[in-house]
């Protein structure tokens, strides 16, 4: 008997595992490692800061 594979919900992109050879970028707010490679341009946020930044910008205006 095989276990079922987890499926991603429709519209949600499947995230590829991070390459172990590429260094990860640091979060510009807290310095924690992000999910993005260090070669990513622009401001990179860790998952927590990315969520908090989204909350701040969603309510501004």
What keyword list fits this structure?
61 residues; alpha+beta; two-stranded antiparallel ribbon; 1 helix; 2 strands; elongated
Explain the overall architecture.
- About 20% of the residues lie in helices and about 15% in strands.
- With about 60 residues, the protein is of the alpha+beta class.
- Strands 1-2 form a two-stranded antiparallel sheet.
Please tell me the overall pLDDT: 79
> Per the principal axes of the C-alpha atoms, what is the gross shape?
elongated
Give the beta-strand count.
2
Given as residue ranges, the uncertain stretches (5+ residues, pLDDT < 50) are: none
Task: Give the strand order of the largest sheet, numbering strands 1, 2, ... along the chain.
Answer: 1-2
Helix and strand pattern: EEH
Helical residue percent band: 10-25%
- Based on secondary structure, the structural category is alpha+beta
Alpha carbon gyration radius: 15 Å
- Count of alpha/pi helices: 1
N→C terminal distance: 54 Å
Taken as a percent bin, the fraction of beta residues is 5-15%
Oligomer: single chain
**Main sheet characteristics:** 2 strands, antiparallel
Brief sketch in words of this structure:
With 61 residues, the protein is an alpha+beta fold. It contains 1 helix and 2 strands.
Topology record:
Blueprint lengths: L23 E3 L6 E5 L9 H13 L2
Antiparallel strand pairs: 1-2
